[in-house]
Write a structure and sequence with these properties.
The protein contains eleven helices and twelve strands. The protein is of the alpha/beta class.
């Protein structure tokens, strides 16, 4: 009998002009959560499996990615770093990876130029390419892909776009429910379950974590391979270690460090 793969707990640092911020549904009720390198170090020490650094305003403002923050974080953190925001070319990917990232996350640029997924996978390997998808539930029951930090609808169906991203070489999908993001009301379990049933690559669930039970729900009922978490860790409501202990008690396999 094969061993069940461990589920990953991944703190997410949304970075705007050098500071970690948190919003409700991407744009409402913003609060400052601190310095990205300090937070990344703390989550590494608490037992996080990976850390995601997202420059949330780079694609909207047309800025270059935050290479200085990546380099400082890579010196302090010994778990995989995924970096996204403002990555528009394989040259940008190369710069981010050279700065110390282990994976790159592309969202708006992948929708605008799907060939970038394939080019990145061919240049650096699928394991380095994470396609991020911002999903909004439509009244008639499907989920639409949004870009530009959740501001711009595309008309693309999330499930079909996920399948296309996998075909083009994405190694993972990082999928955020725009409806749930920052609300702490729980993940969109149905969205992640539907995605997990459609693709053969890992799905990282994002948006809505408010309790440890929400993590358990999306990793079990939602079939997600990993849970992205921000507010409940940044605010000090829970630690990564507490989350993993809770999941283990629920019978959900997690990695223990140390």
């Amino acid at each position: 009998m094969s061993e069940v793969p461990a589920k990953r707990i991944i703190p997410c640092l949304d970075i705007d002009h050098g500071r970690v911020v948190k919003n409700v549904r991407f744009h409402e009720n913003r609060w400052d959560a601190g310095d990205p390198v300090e937070l990344a170090r703390r989550y590494d020490q608490e037992g996080a499996d990976e850390v995601v650094l997202l420059d949330i305003s780079a694609s909207v403002e047309g800025r270059q990615i935050m290479l200085d923050v990546i380099a400082r974080a890579a010196e302090e953190v010994f778990i995989p770093l995924t970096v996204g925001g403002g990555i528009r070319s394989t040259e940008d990917m190369r710069a981010v990876l050279r700065a110390g990232a282990d994976k790159v996350s592309i969202n708006t640029s992948a929708v605008q130029n799907p060939e970038l997924i394939q080019a990145g996978a061919e240049a650096f390997g699928s394991q380095c390419i994470v396609v991020a998808i911002d999903a909004k539930r439509r009244p008639d029951g499907w989920w639409e892909v949004y870009v530009h930090g959740g501001r711009t609808p595309t008309g693309l169906d999330v499930l079909r776009w996920a399948e296309q991203a996998e075909r083009l070489g994405a190694g993972e999908l990082l999928v955020t429910s725009l409806d749930a993001d920052g609300t702490r009301a729980g993940y969109d379990v149905e969205l992640h379950r539907r995605l997990a049933d459609r693709v053969g690559i890992p799905v990282i669930a994002s948006g809505g974590a408010g309790t440890l039970e929400h993590l358990a729900a999306v990793l079990s009922e939602g079939k997600a391979d990993a849970a992205l978490v921000a507010s409940i860790f940044h605010s000090g409501q829970h630690t990564v270690a507490e989350a993993k202990a809770y999941l283990a008690k629920k019978g959900i396999p997690v990695r223990w460090q140390g």
